[in-house]
């Protein structure tokens, strides 16, 4: 039996359509104070957030750095699989398994309490990316699972941390700023990584990604540990 490659697109579209009625069930909570919907309000939140003495700034930088790394890895999985001649028929199963592993570990992220988790994830993630650069083989798939395990643990932990230290009227804006920084960083770095992967070797891409993540995340971790 031949299955069209369009089938995943159709199934994805169906899932997105199912989210529409769910969206209508969401209710805006009552708040005593709301920011006005203006550019000046956004500018004010930016100014208050990106203050060098502000813990929130370093938390967003750290979160954006880790988000950039994991988002880049998600897009680099496919060229990695092509490089090792992984059978395309199993791509969907592998993608599902990777995302399930991330979802599984995210369930236990609430148990994280120690601020040293920032240093631990920074070093461990950078080390795993370094290992991937030297293992463009089937062993690299296991390393991807470890990265997705880390992604599942640290992402909800960071978002919850941001929620805790951010007032309710600014929370959505701050989280949007975080997402914006991740996407902007990704849009800048991924064409460069793509060029390197296309013209040189894929291993250099993971090596560079590791070199970017380690210093930025360690500096942010150090700043966060001082607060």
Question: What characterizes the major β-sheet?
Answer: none
Q: Work out the strand percent.
A: under 5%
The amount of helix comes to over 70%
CATH superfamily: MFS general substrate transporter like domains
Number of helices: 8
Number of domains: 1
Ends distance: 60 Å
Describe the oligomeric state of these chains in a short phrase: single chain
What gross morphology would you assign? globular
CATH architecture: Up-down Bundle
Q: Could you give the order of the helices and strands?
A: HHHHHHHH
Output the CATH topology: Growth Hormone, Chain: A
Please state the average pLDDT score: 85
Explained architecture:
There is one protein chain. The chain has about 230 residues and is an all-alpha fold. It has a single domain, classed as MFS general substrate transporter like domains (Growth Hormone, Chain: A). Helices cover about 75% and strands about 0% of the residues. The chain has eight helices and no strands. It has helices at about 5-25, 40-50, 55-85, 90-105, 115-135, 140-165, 170-200, 200-225. Helix 3 (about 55-85) runs antiparallel to helix 8 and helix 5 runs antiparallel to helix 8 (about 200-225). It is globular and about 55 Å long. About 25% of the residues are buried. The model has no long low-confidence stretch (mean pLDDT about 85).
